[in-house]
Amino acid sequence: MPLQAVIPSVHSLAGEKMTTLKQVKMDKTYQDAFHELGRSWEVSPELFEKLQETTCHMYLPSTHTTEVNKLRYELFCARRGEVESSQLHPCEDCLFMHALRANYQAAMWRRSLQSQPFVANPTDCGWMTDEDGKLAVNWMRGSPAPDAVMQLLSCKCVRSCELPKCTCLSNGLKCTDMCRLQTCQNKAIEEEPVAQQSDSESDVDDIEED
């Protein structure tokens, strides 16, 4: 089966969820991985390795790849870059944050009958506090892409960069030199380098002061 055939379209997401559920019910490997969730408030490296492998097999049952980042690259190359990020599985960073939140919820359920259970801080388990002090999902810990790649992103705005049409603004990014419109207000302001005074100039200044 070619890799192109395994990337789901938007209309087939519901069917993919049912397929995944059937796989979990039939494969003990999946069951063992999920059974470990919630035993501890932390996601161990061993457990996360199992979750990565499980995720890879959910998206491509025939794959021998056990790392989600490698599989994302394979699927991306299979479509020659013509694929939306929503059609790919989470990267390793996002998957780990998902695993933290799922593990936290499972841990709460496992301890639901305890009179005074210890409950970990949710900000250590995939959430963060926003400006109002409310819990918000912490989707990822690092940058979505290397800086060199971020500089190549672009929008196709013609007259002005405004929400919701501007893809840069909608994703919280600054417009780059690759954008079609080069006169928008969303471009990053480049700081001019501070001129450094040479040693000879400083010596002249010292003489004049004397």
Describe this protein's structure.
- This protein has 210 residues and is mostly helical.
- It has two domains: 3-126, no CATH class; 143-188, no CATH class.
- It has eight helices and two strands.
- It has helices spanning 13-26, 28-35, 45-59, 68-78, 92-110, 147-150, 167-170, 199-209; strands spanning 127-129, 135-137.
- A two-stranded antiparallel sheet has the order 1-2.
- A hairpin with a 5-residue loop joins strand 1 and strand 2 (135-137).
- Helix 1 (13-26) packs across helix 2.
- The longest helix has 19 residues, at 92-110.
Descriptive key words:
disordered N terminus, two-stranded antiparallel ribbon, mainly alpha, single chain, 210 residues
Chain-wise SSE layout:
Layout: H1 13-26, H2 28-35, H3 45-59, H4 68-78, H5 92-110, E1 127-129, E2 135-137, H6 147-150, H7 167-170, H8 199-209
Antiparallel strand pairs: 1-2
Helix pairs in contact: 1-2, 2-3
Strand portion, in percent? under 5%
**Helix-strand sequence:** HHHHHEEHHH
Averaged pLDDT: 81
Q: How many structural domains in the coordinates?
A: 2
Runs in which pLDDT lies below 50 for 5 or more consecutive residues are: 1-13
Characterize this entry briefly.
By secondary structure, the chain is mainly α. 41% of the residues lie in helices and 3% in strands.
